[in-house]
Amino acid sequence: MITFAGLCVQEIVQTYSDTLIRIAVQQTKSMSEAEDIVQEVYMTLMKQKKPFANEAHLKAWLIKVTFNKCKDFFKSSRVNKTVPITEDMSFIAKEEQIVLAEIFELHPKERAIVYLHYYEGYTTAEIANLLEINVNTVGSKLRRARMKLKTILEEGSKV
After folding, report:
1. Cα separation, 150 vs 156, whole angstroms
2. Is the whole-model pTM more than 0.85?
3. What b-and-e string marks burial along 140-158, b requiring 16 or more CB atoms within 10 Å of the CB?
4. Considering only CA atoms, which of 12, 6, 141, 127 is closest in space to residue 60?
């Protein structure tokens, strides 16, 4: 049985699939594309030769690979960048679905930072490491995203 950071592949899939799907959905705005991307992430994991120091290292690696696969998705020739959000997202709580629509209006890099900070609980330093960008850039993008979301949500409540 193949194991990574002490977990078998089945345990890894059960533990991290929801997180990885959420990341891929908020990046691609498509459940079917998200599922394909997560499947690619697991295929990449199976080819991984280097050991993981611990479970946190494994999780960070999975998240980083997911973001990279999402970037690759947008670089592919088959992508039409205006993908409608018409798919069933019942796996996401109703309260989260309301905010998710507003999060989709953010720039993809801002969406990634907001997700990692608020949904996964990563610090700005950890996000900077995962996304391979400057810590100060993470902080400024997070502040900018908060301001945009606040404006979007306030405008929505006036309607």
Report:
1. 10
2. no
3. ebbeebeebbeebeeeeee
4. 127
